[in-house]
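Try it yourself: sequence plus zinc ion, in.
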Amino acid sequence: MSKEKVYIFDTTLRDGEQVPGCQLNTLEKIEVAQSLELLGVDIIEAGFPVSSPGDFTSVVEISKAVNQPTICALTRAVEKDIDVAADALRFAKHPRIHTGIGVSPHHMKYKFNATPEQIVERAVAAVKYAKKYVEDIEFYAEDAGRSENRFLAKVIEAVIAAGATVVNIPDTTGYCLPDEYGAKIRYLKENVKNIDKAIIATHCHNDLGLATANSIAGVINGARQIECTINGIGERAGNTSLEEAVMIINSHKRLSLETSINTKRLYPTSRLVSTLMRMPVQANKAIVGRNAFAHSSGIHQDGVLKKRETYEIMNPKQVGVNESSIVLTARSGRAALKHRLTSLGYKLDQKELDEAYKEFLDLADKKREVHNDDLMALMGKTARHDRKIQLESLQVLCGKSAIPTATIRLKYEGQTWEGTDTGNGPIDAAINAVKTIITTKTTLEELLIHTITRGSDDMGKVHVQVESKGKVFYGFSANTDIITATIEAYLEALSQVV
Ligand code: KIV
Ligand code: ZN
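Structure, out:
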């Protein structure tokens, strides 16, 4: 059976941009628009030109910068708004004017103080006026979610007769239940005589967390355009999330629907919008959240490693997420550790794996998540258990107004040795303490401590170079305690000298 197309109308730059504190400048909007074009959206709502000079300029510039998608500009059912929108769209290759008026009892009475008949008249007049400028006219019936279906059908029939090519049925306040919203769309399909001359659009807000469910109920019942935003951003609780709507259509083949979205661009586009709008994506957000494809419990990790589909209904690569879906934490098992180490190029036999796993658990207890860098550091550390000088214990006293003092216990040549010394800081004191035991003449040529990048619980990674009799010896270690890491690295280098 051939699939029917659902048009994706992105309103990130209009409804999405209404989020307080998320305003973008024109250049940023162009960047988002170009990313939406790459993503494959059919329509970009670029702004509400009469609302501000900034919005006007953005619609002009986006019209110039984008070729493929239709560029849409919002207006009220007011001639001045429509004039300004048409002017802003003058460079658009495919322009659309989006005009409309409130149709619910609340809107008609309190916002417009108008009778239903007057509302129909104004709606028709706006569509006819806009039609002077462009062929593609979308009409929105604001607060359709709370409107009475018979009256809504009357308005929709009248605006289609006046030339509307798309009719938008917004659940402006996010009030509808999915079956109710779906029934509303079905009602229009069945009761508006000329409905086959227009595309029905869903435009759902997320006040009750139902925006995506309502949009899908809408297309199941005959709508063929979904209005949505990247990451579901928008006023209050936001709009339908583009990535969710698209992946639902993509995943449920029995709907026999398709979109033109390049799903591999979903994640990069989500990151771009989140960064530019300074609006973090919640970690558990469907499709694009940090944890959307992350498995951290041992049982799930084992299942996913045996067959991904055990715990995943989508391949992360399909939505542009390339990272490993296995998060290494204290709850991970040997299977997950082995899998990650193998992908990093380490081949371990069972004994080596057991040893690495013990060290991994020690580290995972100290850190929330173990990263590839940590594992590489760990492997560097675990591979050198046979070195000549072993660190048994280290205690360091330091801090403001303390004299840095270290006491160290080493195992060397079958004996345990203890030494104490001071220094100009804790590392210097610890190295001096080692020197009270290992007296072979060496020079510490380089000591590199990697800066912490992921937080205060991260590992310190230390490289040292020790010179002896004209030769250089290297040592490396890593630990959440950087003084211990330094001494371990130092002892590794010294072990090659003595
Ligand atoms: O939510 C809404 O009703 C709208 C219209 C202006 C389309 O955003
Ligand atoms: Zn809206």
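One thing you can check immediately is this: Residues 294-378 form a domain with the Recoverin; domain 1 fold (CATH 1.10.238).
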